[in-house]
Design brief:
alpha/beta; 7-stranded mixed beta sheet; 14 strands; globular
Length: 423
């Protein structure tokens, strides 16, 4: 079959909703400076869809640091890969401070988190090595694993029995190939909000010989006594052999870093293809990153405010009767029984009638058959934002229970003659 013909026939699990939802549910355009109140299609909305946990994206000191750096160096300095012509004192300084912050010997900056993670995995394992990873891992981990030509095993999400079983399998293979084992998980699973079971997995090091790589995108800056992340929160930061976080969440920027023992980070620096063969992180992001990290370190009250908001929002939703799963982080999922169309009708009602903007998340971002509204509380949300949001969720609870959105869905599908494949 012609490739384009196949694509026309099957636009993919999300692509099938493009005509129905583009510009509204997917690729929505929000206006105004980023923050808890923004505009959507001309209406004021309380905005719950940015991973700006600490509210630094619009912080005056951060904006000034970014602007000053851009004025001095331009937006895109350095014009080259680190290894070629992109090294600066500021890159090295940020690496030193990041390593200290996450309690590791050494750190290395990555120009983007996604590509960075793909290359970390690619560089760490050879053909004789075996990867064991959580089946719900972020797409960047999945893509990194795809490059691996040796054996890989997934374990059931956060399931220790399954971890152990797959470590046994991996140990058998590794003993035949003479390779090692890399276990990959996340500090926080960013859609459902559960922490990876780092402590329990680390305890398995006494039974199995493996190295642990953790993507702590949502834990960095939000968890732990100093904000060093999920490992610190669980008391096992020292057991994480290779620590990764993006700057796209608490650091309110772009770029990422990897941290660990000096010699391993040195090895990665020379072997991560997406970093060797691509432009380095730009100066405004590096100098701006130093400012963001300073705020993370010196203003614990911002993290305290974030958590105050998290507790208020999550307790309020649970008290109304919503199922928010077993999140033990800032990520706040509201699980919806039903189809994506029903969930989108509910989210439309929230936006249009109550001025509440949340995202609807379904497969392939989360496992098949699951739908959730995802709310990200930040340090900048106010009590009024939370109270108004809870009042709106209380108002729609009954409609949801009595099948109002299900009926809306049926009407819409019939009137517009729409059919979607179940996902
Ligand atoms: C868990 C996780 N890992 C990696 C990434 C990718 O990071 P970046 O946006 O810096 O490419 C993200 C998304 O930002 C993420 O949520």
């Amino acid at each position: 079959m012609d490739i384009f013909e196949r694509i026309r026939q099957n636009p993919g699990p999300l692509g099938q909703f493009a005509d129905y939802g583009e510009g509204y549910f997917v690729f929505p355009k929000l206006d105004g400076p980023i923050g808890p109140r923004m505009k959507f299609q001309g209406k004021d909305v309380i905005f719950w869809s940015a991973n700006d946990y600490l509210g630094l994206c619009n912080h005056p000191e951060v904006k000034k640091a970014d602007a000053d750096a851009a004025a001095e160096y331009g937006m895109f300095y350095p014009m080259g890969a680190r290894a070629m012509s992109g090294e600066t004192d500021q890159h090295q300084q940020l690496e030193k401070e990041l390593a200290e912050f996450v309690q590791k010997e050494s750190a290395y900056l990555l120009n983007f988190g996604y590509q960075g993670m793909v290359s970390i995995i690619d560089a760490l394992v050879g053909k004789n090595d075996v990867i064991v990873y959580d089946v719900d891992s972020h797409a960047c981990i999945v893509d990194g694993v795809r490059l691996h030509i040796g054996k890989r095993f997934t374990y059931r999400h956060n399931d220790l029995e399954s971890v152990e079983k797959n470590l046994q399998r991996a140990t058998k293979v590794a003993s035949e190939t003479g390779g090692g084992i890399l276990l990959i998980t996340e500090g926080v699973f960013g859609m459902r909000g559960q922490q990876g079971k780092l402590k329990e997995i680390a305890a398995l090091k006494s039974k199995f010989n493996f190295r642990m790589l953790v993507d702590d995108a949502h834990g960095f800056g939000t968890l732990g006594t100093t904000g060093a992340g999920a490992g610190e929160e669980q008391g096992v930061q020292d057991q994480i052999d290779v620590y990764f976080s993006t700057f796209a969440k608490s650091m309110a920027g772009f770029g990422a870093f990897v941290a660990g023992d000096k010699e391993i980070i040195r090895y990665l620096k020379y072997n991560m293809r997406s970093q060797i063969f691509a432009k380095s992180l730009t100066m405004p992001m590096v100098i701006g990153g130093l400012k963001r990290l300073e705020l993370l370190r010196t203003r614990p009250e911002i993290r305290a405010k974030l958590w105050e908001n998290v507790v208020k929002l999550q307790t309020g939703l649970k008290n109304i009767g919503y199922n928010i799963g077993d999140t033990n982080t800032c990520v706040t999922p509201v699980f919806i029984q039903g189809s994506p169309v029903e969930a989108t009708q509910l989210s439309k009602d929230l936006r249009e009638e109550y001025g509440i903007f949340t995202s609807v998340v379904s497969y392939p971002v989360i496992p098949k058959g699951m739908i959730l509204l995802r709310l990200i509380p930040t340090a900048s949300h106010t009590d009024a934002d939370i109270n108004e949001t809870l009042a709106a969720f209380a108002a729609i609870y009954e409609k949801l229970e009595n099948g109002y959105y299900k009926k809306l869905e049926q009407k819409l599908l019939e009137e517009q003659n729409l059919t979607f494949k179940p996902i």
